[in-house]
Design brief:
- The protein is 40% helix and 19% strand.
- It has 3 domains: 6-305, Rossmann fold (3-Layer(aba) Sandwich), CATH 3.40.50; 333-483, Isoleucyl-tRNA Synthetase, Domain 1, CATH 1.10.730.10; 537-666, Nucleic acid-binding proteins (OB fold (Dihydrolipoamide Acetyltransferase, E2P), Beta Barrel).
- It is flat and about 90 Å long.
- The relative contact order is 0.09.
- The longest helix is centred in the middle third of the chain and has 31 residues, at 334-364.
- The chain is built from 20 helices and 26 strands.
- The N and C termini lie far apart (69 Å).
- The strands form 7 sheets. A 6-stranded parallel sheet has the order 3-2-1-12-13-7, sandwiched between helices.
- The structure holds ligand ME8.
- Ligand ME8 binds at residues 12-15, 23-24, 26-27, 52, 228-229, 254-255, 257-258, 286-287, 293-295.
Length: 667
């Protein structure tokens, strides 16, 4: 790559106990956009993503799927990689934390920290959250303060990392590097956390097996975060990082819930090992669904595939980056997505490109006309575009994606207005009329050229099509964004092939198609084993599958005490009404009398039970489950069913032999 400056950025290294939803896709899309942008600014860029394959939750998911851990993670990692490839999100490096070369990095990092005196042996008893893979500061029996799920008491011999020794060095470092943690809200959060004092951190485990072994200490494996964070180094050479020259990373992009691991632990580990620290940690906000974080453990996820199949990848990229201010939370809705697609992409950019090309075709035999004399309104549009170029680049530099897109689309709107007032389709073909028309169409085509170069990092597919349509030379992705200026489109250029951009789509139909595909994806068997999905309940399946009361039930071999069982309140209920839900072919909406009240409950049984035959039937209902929305419909409780056969056919639990009173408790 010659003398180009290097730029190294990373996505989080995602857990393999589930498949990607659009939250993960969002992080990867942002990185992919930055990668493309930096390339167009002349950098030699490396982007890393990967899969975090160790730890207790992966171990349990593999147990549930009934396959060895190595088989489980290999299949899941392959699914992640395949999806990113299909979506055109091709990182330059994909690290699996079960790769041998990664184990070498982790062991090397540990050795450096130990040699420098920052590791010591000890014992630890504490509450551990297996979902966040972190010890949490709560009493036994209390829930995790971060995610609200149950914690476990863990006692183990382990090695400690002297995190406490890094309070001052970290605070000094943050002070010297005010842009290390972004955005500022997260920086402030981390500053007060570190100022509050740091306790040493247990970085090995003897209570689990599924991890990278600690050299010479065969009972110990590494704590997943010590393991996963090191993957950023593995990707660019591990112990030999200096040879490749990409370390330190310029940017670790993460979601806000893992900022502490990246902005406190990771720099402390690197300081202890005397390795260079990354330039910046950027923590973006969450995609919310029905106002709560979209998450595999909650089950309120939307996957990228159905959206991409119906609207295309550019539409998903545009929507996510345009609608959510980077750094803040954003709400996902199909409605807003389709609205953006129709207004900004189909009617906006798509329409401008096809209109311009059709007029050039009709009046100038498909060749970009030469503007003879320009009028003030042509020059005003040129000036407006030139100003926009500078402003958009400024926004990209600051990762202000939504503002950058807003500004690009303001130019698209200005061009629409200009065409409407200049009317190059009206009038005849006298020399004067053709000359005016030439100026207008050249101006519009040139504006389009600038717009697609600017939009390319976010919209890699459609911009290539417009670039080809304009007959512009070279590859759009190889254009130098820094020297983008008005006036680059040569008159006389023959227009290229026209390809469909964004066909307009009917809102209701598009939404139904996406929701139906999503529903199907949620109910599809997991790629690994029969019941792997049970560890991460999917919206359509959890309400009826017997044994998935919390979706995170311990493996069958583990015993629970009666106190755990009594937490689940089950009662006899009687179904009062039952109806299908439009766009969710597996779900029925039921109202159920549970003795004290009538509840609305969604159940994933629509393919096996006729709604009208269910009325009056007595069923077992979990009544103290937190309410949640399935396909936008509130579900307040869960109907218990056996899961039969390899496809998990639901068979409702009931009371056929005795007449039981509605509301009676099951114990
Ligand atoms: O935390 N909105 O992996 P993970 C936006 N293995 N982004 C979201 C999101 C949402 N609703 N849900 C997930 C781990 N993400 C660790 C990381 S790194 C060394 C180890 C994105 O599979 C976001 O980037 O739980 C978040 O930080 C990441 O996925 C968590 O992925």
């Amino acid at each position: 790559m010659g003398d180009k400056p290097k730029y190294y950025l990373t996505t989080p290294i995602y857990y393999t106990n589930g498949l990607p939803h659009i939250g993960h896709t969002y992080s990867t899309i942002v990185c992919d956009t930055i990668r493309r942008y930096k390339r167009m600014r002349g950098f030699d860029v490396v982007m890393t993503t990967g899969t975090d394959e160790h730890g207790v939750n992966v171990e349990r998911s593999a147990q549930k799927a009934g396959v060895p851990e190595s088989e489980y993670v290999a299949k899941m990692a392959a699914e992640w990689k395949k999806l990113w490839d299909e979506l055109g999100l091709q990182a330059d490096e994909f690290v699996r934390t079960t790769d041998l070369k990664h184990a070498h990095t982790v062991q090397w990092l540990f050795k450096l920290c130990r040699e420098n005196g920052y590791i010591y042996p000890g014992h630890y008893t504490g509450q551990y959250c297996i979902y966040d893979n972190a010890y949490v500061d709560v009493k036994a029996g209390e829930a995790c303060p971060d995610c609200g799920r149950p914690t476990e008491t863990v006692t183990e011999a382990n090695f400690y990392f002297k995190l406490s020794a890094f309070q001052k060095p970290l605070l000094d470092f943050y002070k010297k590097n005010p842009h290390f943690i972004q955005p500022d809200t997260r920086r402030n959060e981390i500053l007060s956390f570190v100022e509050g004092g740091l306790r040493d951190l247990s970085i090995t485990r003897t209570s689990i097996r599924w991890g990278i072994p600690v050299p010479g200490e065969e009972k110990h494996v590494f704590y997943v975060w010590f393991d996963a964070l090191s993957a950023y180094l593995t990707a660019v050479g591990g112990p030999n990082y200096a040879q490749r020259g990409y370390w330190p990373a310029d940017l670790h992009l993460v979601g806000k819930e893992i900022i502490r691991f990246h902005a406190v632990y990771w720099p402390a580990f690197l300081m202890a090992a005397m390795l260079p620290l990354p330039e910046q940690i950027w923590a973006h906000g969450w995609l919310l669904m029905d106002n709560s974080k979209m998450s595999k453990s909650v089950g309120n996820v939307v996957r990228p595939r159905p959206i991409v199949d119906v609207l295309g990848m550019d539409a998903l990229r545009y929507y996510l980056l345009r609608e959510t201010v980077f750094g803040q939370d954003g709400n996902f809705s199909y409605e807003a997505l389709i609205q953006r697609y129709n207004s900004d992409l189909a009617n906006g950019l798509g329409n401008l490109a096809s209109r311009t090309a059709a007029l050039v075709e009709k009046y100038f035999a498909g060749r970009v006309p030469k503007p003879a004399a320009l009028e003030p309104q042509d020059e005003a549009l040129a000036k407006e575009t030139q100003t926009a170029i500078a402003e958009v680049l400024e926004q990209y530099e600051a990762f202000g994606f939504s503002r950058a897109l807003e500004r690009i689309w303001s130019v698209v709107a200005a061009a629409d207005k200009y065409l409407t007032s200049e009317q190059p389709w009206a009038g005849g073909t006298t020399d004067a009329e053709q000359s005016r028309r030439a100026a207008v169409l050249w101006t519009t085509a040139e504006l389009l050229r600038a717009v697609v170069v600017l939009a390319h990092p976010v919209l890699p597919d459609c911009t290539v099509k417009v670039w080809t349509l304009l007959g512009a030379p070279g590859k759009i992705g190889a254009q130098d964004l820094g020297s983008l200026a008005w006036g680059g489109l040569a008159p006389g250029t023959a227009l290229g092939k026209s390809q469909p951009l964004f066909p307009r789509i009917e809102k209701k139909e598009a939404q139904e198609r996406m929701e139906a595909m999503e529903n199907e994806a949620q109910n599809a068997p997991s790629p690994v084993g029969a019941s792997a999905a049970a560890a991460t309940p999917a919206a359509g399946t959890a309400p009826v599958a017997a044994g998935t009361v919390a979706g995170t039930a311990p493996a069958a071999t583990e015993k629970i005490g009666i106190e755990d069982f009594t937490k689940v309140e089950m009662r006899v209920g009687q179904i009062k009404t039952a109806e299908r839900i439009v766009g969710a072919d597996k779900l029925l909406k039921l109202t159920v009398d549970i003795g004290t009240e009538i509840r609305q409950i969604c159940a994933g049984i629509a393919q096996f039970y006729e709604p009208e035959k269910l009325i009056g039937r007595k069923v077992a209902v979990v009544v103290n489950l937190a309410p949640r929305k399935l396909r936008g419909v509130e579900s307040n409780g869960m109907i218990v069913a056996a899961s039969v056969g390899p496809e998990g056919r639901p068979v409702l639990a009931g009371f056929p032999d005795e007449d039981v009173e509605v509301g009676a408790r099951l114990r």
